[in-house]
Amino acid sequence: MDTPDRPRAAATNAAAAGFEDSPVFNFINNLSPIPPPKPQASAHNVQLFKSSDLAPVSSIFASPHVNPAKESKLVVRDDPVQLPQDSNSPNSVRTRLGTAIRLIKSKNIVSENCSFTCHLSQAPIDSSINTSISTSNLPQPIQFVGGSAECDKNQNAGGDKDLSTDQECPVEGVFFDHTGIDKMDSSQPGRIVHENQLCEQSRDGFVAYDEDYLATEELNSDMLRLAPPFDAETQLMNGTLNADNAHSGTLLTDGSSGSYINNAAHDPHLYWDGAVDGSAMDYTPQLLPGVCQNQLVSNDQLCNALTEPSNHMPMDQSALSQHMRGTRRRCLFNEKAGAVNKAAKKTSDRHSANTTTPRCKTSSSDHNSKPMKTPPCALPGIGLHLNALATIPKDKIVPYAAQSSTIQASNFPSAVSSSPATSEPNTANEDSSQAIVVANADESGQGSPKKKRHKFDNGDGTSCKRCSCKKSKCLKLYCECFHAGVFCSEPCSCQGCLNKPSNMETVLSTREQIESRNPLAFAPKVIRTSEPGQELGSNKTPASARHKRGCNCKKSSCLKKYCECFQGGVGCSISCRCEGCKNAFGRREGVVLLSIEQAKQGSVENIACVKEETSENDNQLVIYQAANPASAENVLTTPSVEDIRPLSALPPSSSKRPRSSTKLIGHSSRLCNSQAPLKTDILLSPFESYAEMVLGDGASDVLKGGSSPQTSVKVVSPNKKRISPPRIGTGLSPICKNGRKLILKSIPSFPSLCGDVNKVDPKTSSPAS
DNA sequence: GAGTTTGAAACT
DNA sequence: CAGTTTCAAACTC
């Protein structure tokens, strides 16, 4: 391979020389699908995506949220960006990750390390690899943030031995810049895993890119299309947008786990990725986590193979990567549904899909320019990303749009969903994941009439959308496509649709208006609140997830898809105002109330508040013992997010929620103990607040929990799954104990490279801890 | 496929 | 902020 040149150089420098010399290596090189590119050509490609090109954009994207610190970090990354010709894929990956992380940081400055580390610690790493992650590793986060880190990591991970890896990940190598490896503790296993993953991703992406690029035009186009959106994000973070991103998008598809969900999410369909304002917060995390996890798993393997010196073969990559990719893609799609079950089928399908490229079939008329590329299904994740991206000014976006007519059209592999592999649909609900899955479904489904197709939804509504709007012109939230941030496409049966690339400005402006009214309007409907791993692993129910606003069902008993909570596969929460809730995923009914009442009645000093979590899966009983009534209340408040739900029933909060998210926060805090309120209030950043919203009171509670441990002792139910207070400390994140941590979690899904540890665990292995 | 039901979104 | 209307999905037949 041509590209190998660089790697080679690196390799030569390192120890790889031997490797290169190997006949196999040579053979591979010769075989490499990638045409020995004219340097220029490659360069050209690269440039398209390069951050430098995008730079302006990035600046644009720079969200207020972003912290200077981030920026600085980003800056670092930028440099690297330039490099890689081939880098496309790999870089993109990195950037994304880095970006995601950065975003998190920016939002949660305080907790940056924590959040990040948490991910890491949790990170999938563990599962696949024995490696225990040391949460302590602050550097890691940094590294990731650094962006380039990935490769670096790889190097590190690989350790010196991995020089080969460097080769393998030439692009990354390019990036090397940094702090890199050296700084990193190569020793840490956790890291290694990530690194590997990263490498793989990059590699895969790399390879994938090649493949896609070479093999399937569609993919390429898609990727290209995708690129812009990503770019925006990445730019925000790094300023390095790369074609890579696009690649990554493809990669995502590849990833069994959807490692790339991030990208994918962004990509695809979301024309307006960035549109959402910072307030929107990052939804991405949600998606990502799952994805990451998955990725991790799959990646690990891949990584291992790759990382291993023997395996390295940069060249092999093509073969391996392709192979791997195939699997990954499958996974991604499969995941979506949470359809663990389906996965197998899909995998097979995926193959076909690969050729075709997974997409929602939507081809908008507009998109016709690219017949194949139909607008992407809305990725569930996408929504998240969009939100995350939100910072991007429309203006900027518009340009894309203009371009995008082509771009947008692109269908991105919806990649994504990270649904927790966990298999259960419930879990699947996780925002993005499902959506992604849907996309695939769409393909199959498209054939089917619109009727049933509807959304393949995630709860988020992120899934591939197909609307049938008649009066809204697809410019209102009524329109699922619009709501999901995707253009209407062929499958849609809408009338008078203005949600088309050709009307990008209109769409954006409308979107903006809506966001101005409700910053969370485009946020995923279902947000994963707690760490996925914990709950998911334990339960089927996505206890961690909840509907951002809660439902208001009165007749459906939250047992039908009319209920957004149900639809999203999440239990009802405090924020819900439903009546007669029978949500299979968890009710918000009133155990809490009882406990409260009891407490108030003063009947108790030692009141055991028993919460029965309705979540079907669990039937968990959580018993809180309060020393006194007051404590009882506390208990109510303190419980983990999950617990919170039922508790949430508290009238005040439940009564009505302000439309604006922020208000909700206030409620929650109030509900919570008087003890901590200030703390939460004070601390809450918009973002946090958002988290709270998502979490519901829980977040605040959690925070409080830290402060008010006293309140309760909890006994675990037979199932023992939840012990709220303890959880706070442990569950949420051992590492970060303060409330902030929770916040981070809420964010979680950030594409933590690691992915959620939790999620990873469920299927593959036991949780790291 | 048409009609009804439902609840979110939008409006007042 | 509360109530009403509009809307489109979900559902039923």
From TrEMBL:
Cellular component GO terms, alphabetical: nucleus
Bias (Polar residues) ranges: 353-366
InterPro entries named among the record's database cross-references: CRC (IPR005172), Tesmin/TSO1-like_CXC (IPR033467), TSO1-like (IPR044522)
Region (Disordered), start-end ranges: 339-376, 411-431, 441-460, 643-664, 702-731
Annotated keywords: Nucleus
UniProt xrefs under SMART domains: CXC
Subcellular location per the Swiss-Prot or TrEMBL entry: Nucleus
Domain CRC: 463-586
Keyword set includes Nucleus: yes
Biased composition (Low complexity): 646-655
UniProt xrefs under PROSITE patterns: CRC
Single GO molecular function: DNA-binding transcription factor activity
Record family assignment: Belongs to the lin-54 family.
The protein's name in its UniProt record: CRC domain-containing protein
Organism of origin: Brachypodium distachyon (Purple false brome)
